[in-house]
Amino acid sequence: MRVLHLGLTNFRNYARLELDLPAGIILLQGDNAQGKTNLLEAIHILSRVRSPRTKSDRELVSWLALDDDLPFARLVARVLRGEDTSQIELSLLYSRRSLDSDTSVLRRHVRIDGVDKPARDAVGLLNAVLFLPEDIDLVSGSPNLRRRYLNDAISQVDPRYRRELQQFNRVLGQRNYLLKSLRGTRRDPDQLTFWDRQLVDHGAYLVTQRQAAILQLNKHVQRIHPRLTGNSELLQLEYASSVSLGDHAGSILEAGLTDGHNVAPPSGFAYHATSDAYSAQLQELQEQELERGVSLLGPHRDDLRFLANGVDMNVYGSRGQQRTTALSLKLAEVEWNAEEKHDQPILLLDDVMSELDAAHRACLADTIDKAQQVIVTTTDLAQYSPSFLERATPWLVQAGRIELLSSP
Questions:
Q1: 24-29 and 392-398 strand pairing
Q2: CATH T-level topology, domain 134-342
Q3: Stated pTM of the model
Q4: Residue ranges of domains in the chain
Q5: How far apart are CA 220 and CA 339, in angstroms?
Q6: 10-residue block means of pLDDT along the chain (408 residues)?
Q7: Which residues are CB-neighbours of 252 under 8 A, at least 6 positions away?
Q8: Which helix (H) or strand (E) holds 8?
Q9: How far apart are CA 192 and CA 27, in angstroms?
């Protein structure tokens, strides 16, 4: 898989960019704040229809365009998958709320091969894995970051997952609103029955797929992490679910996976076991939830733990250990994604080589060699070996402009 052409209009510091991308290694060199990371972000957005760096789409529209009557930003990529090509386009358009209103709202518009589509239909058409220096936060940061990571990674290989996640979040919001409205009143638990059933239907799917994804990621992590640590550490990923399946959780899940892949049959044994446990435990917590006015159980409360030789890296890992753990996770994601999609994802490496030692660089280099397309950013070409530079296409990035470097 690779991007054949990337077009950006009024995106971040790119007023206008039309760029044909070659296969192999693309090396973006430039000073800080010139647009290197912005280009990686644009490709990542087209793979997931949201930014890894901000929750506000308004920050993506160039501030120079805000003086226009109707500011907009446009991102478009022509993508090669196997022998097929497709075009993904995302537009961010400001429009007035009404004819007599001076206020405006920013709206998303997604087109696939020239046809308007819901945003969720674009997720996973372009598969990319992004490596950032701040990936250490996946281990040391809040549980919300790890849930977000799992949601993004699974959505790349399971189209249904994103739809179920959207439905779950909608139901969760409605249920929480009802719980708050019932606080301090004469409680009629029957009012929760409909929302409980919806919460379980969608939530059980998310929990099952996350558990299945962890099983698959573990297969790769347990081979990759010893290479990064000189065989001194074994890493185990563990999904900390608020829905308890008891002592037989592992065997229940493995029994429910019949094809060896991450996507468990939605009507299978693992899903039904999770659904039954979720429903029963909701009933047990009903009084507490009514008292507190919030949903206490479900995938929105879950976490991902990293155990190196049995030690919890989230809490007790050093900065070096946490960085190595995050790198192992991302390398495992690359291999899992390639296994599920039968195609290597695009690798986006944002100045990560400078923070790695020789062993880590060698492991990442193996992954680079397998990919059809890799985009690497750096401020200093001297950080790379002559053999790496010979294999790369070097580009200079300056103030939102990109030009080929004839002699790196």
A1: parallel
A2: Glutathione S-transferase Yfyf (Class Pi); Chain A, domain 2 (1.20.1050)
A3: 0.89
A4: 134-342
A5: 11
A6: 97 96 96 95 95 91 84 96 94 72 80 94 93 93 96 93 95 95 75 94 95 94 92 95 75 52 58 93 93 94 97 95 94 95 94 82 86 94 87 94 81
A7: 245, 269, 270, 273
A8: strand 2-11
A9: 55
